[in-house]
Design brief:
Blueprint: E1 5-10, E2 22-27, E3 30-35, H1 39-45, E4 55-57, E5 60-61, H2 64-76, E6 81-84, H3 91-104, E7 107-109, H4 119-125, H5 133-139, E8 142-146, H6 150-153, H7 157-161, E9 175-180, E10 192-195, H8 201-212, H9 225-237, E11 240-245, H10 247-250, H11 255-269, E12 274-279, H12 286-297, E13 303-304, E14 311-312, H13 319-324, E15 330-335, H14 338-341, H15 344-351, E16 355-359, E17 369-372, E18 382-385, E19 391-394, H16 405-419
The protein binds iron/sulfur cluster.
Length: about 425
């Protein structure tokens, strides 16, 4: 029997923190130990043993060549396919997917279809002062968690990057503040917890901005003004304030307005000290997907590839909108954890369309052609972007017979080109 192997400094794709300090021990072809322990990491590195073959056509096992031929045939009749779920891919996989979309003239929604993310639009329209997680760890003396619960969603956030991490330039313990609609494991750590419904966020952000600008506030009209004043007092007197927000904060209908107002507030704080916004993401590489599409097209997501170049519509090209309007006639789905939190109407609309799916685990959602691909950071390498946009290299720690998503996509792109008598050169100019 072969000796156990230990891989050092392995990047974990279990959440958007992409911790890059794991030691993974592999024995007899299986992961024997993960250190330091993290429940989400244990779940990510587990490879489900199931009987699903690597390729299926209508639920029946198929060879890779017949599956690619079937996918090519399915797409040949499609006029407006949609690609979604790109956050489950590595950067190389995303680039391959965008080449494929270009060749197909497809829509691409690179955001998490389960939640709205206006940050790409806000970054381009008003800008946002942000920082790396390392800078937050080393410098932030006051941290406001606003609808963010990293103690639950990113179990090692506190010890690696925030409340419990040693800060190189800190001389006193950090102050934790929280605004949330309910008590959480993170609000339990806060010195000041302002319990406030999500519907109040825009008002609260405007109140903070008004306080920073020295405007008069009608005390009768703002609930919890005392808490908001205390939060502003602590943030504005900090040497380095960090405001950590999760998708619940910016994912609602008025998410763009809330984020823009917060960005304005943080700009005001920067007149006298340093303050930043850190946006959490609900999965490993959604920020990488946003970057990949911006590199490729010059636009934030979502886009449509057309013969005369890509076009951008921040609301009209969202997957949910396209599907509800019946503007899509085929789906290319990159499966992963986002499917478990996708709204039921989105799942119902997706289930009605001819679909090609690529995923690293068996999907409950049907697809005409399914490819089971290698799991990034476990069964294949590549790279992903951490939530603060820092790219990190992944390590293959387990052997596999599965193709990478990138290989499968490239093979299907080439097959589509060959079927239509085209070279694989792209239609749209790359930026
Ligand atoms: S916090 Fe996230 S990235 Fe870090 S080890 Fe846990 S699951 Fe992995």
């Amino acid at each position: 029997m072969s000796q156990p192997i230990t891989f050092a400094d392995v990047v974990c794709c279990g959440c958007s923190c992409l911790c890059d300090d794991l030691q993974i021990t592999v024995a007899a072809g299986q992961i024997a130990q993960i250190a330091p322990a993290c429940p989400h990491a244990a779940s990510y590195f587990a490879i489900a043993e199931d009987a699903q073959s690597n390729c299926q056509i209508n639920g029946k096992a198929a060879t890779i060549d017949t599956a690619i031929a079937a996918a090519t045939k399915l797409l040949a009749g499609a006029k407006s396919p949609l690609l979604l779920g790109l956050g489950e891919l590595t950067i190389d996989g995303q680039r391959a997917a965008l080449d494929w979309a270009d060749r197909l003239g497809a829509y691409v929604d690179a955001g998490n279809p389960a939640e709205s993310d206006p940050s790409g639009v806000v970054l381009q329209s008003t800008g946002m002062i942000t920082a790396t997680l390392g800078e937050i760890r080393d410098r932030a003396d006051v941290i406001l968690f606003w609808n963010a619960d990293p103690a639950t969603t990113q179990p090692r956030h506190f010890t690696r990057f925030s409340l419990d991490a040693p800060g190189r330039f800190l001389t006193a313990p950090r102050t934790a503040l929280a605004i949330d609609s309910q008590a959480t494991a993170t609000t339990a750590r806060a010195e000041l917890f302002c319990e406030s419904p999500l519907s109040q966020n825009l008002e609260t952000a405007h109140t903070l901005l008004a306080l920073a600008r020295g405007k008069k506030i009608d005390r009768k009209r703002v609930p919890q003004l005392q808490d908001i004043e205390s939060i502003h007092a602590r943030l504005s007197s900090a040497t380095y304030a960090a405001i950590v927000c999760a998708p619940r904060f910016y994912g609602g209908a008025d998410g763009a307005a809330i984020l823009e107002t917060l960005a304005d507030y943080v700009r005001e704080l920067n007149r006298n000290s340093r303050a930043i916004i850190s946006l959490e993401r609900s999965g490993p590489n959604w920020i990488g997907a946003a970057e990949s599409i911006a590199w490729r097209t010059g636009y934030p997501s979502p886009v449509r590839f057309a013969a005369d170049g890509p076009t951008f519509d921040p609301t009209g090209y969202r997957a949910a909108k396209l599907l509800s309007r019946g503007q899509v006639d085929a789906l290319i789905r990159f499966d992963g954890d986002w499917l478990t939190s996708a709204p039921s109407e989105l799942l119902t609309a997706m289930a009605k369309l001819p679909t090609i799916s690529l995923g690293w685990r068996q999907s409950e959602l049907p697809a005409n052609i399914q490819f089971r691909v290698a799991k990034p950071g476990v069964e294949c390498g590549g790279s992903m972007h951490r939530l603060d946009d820092v790219p990190l290299p992944l390590t293959q720690v387990l052997p596999t017979t599965r193709m990478t998503a990138e290989d499968a996509i490239r093979r299907m792109t080439n097959a589509s080109c060959a079927a239509s008598g085209l070279t694989s050169s792209l239609r749209s100019p790359s930026v």
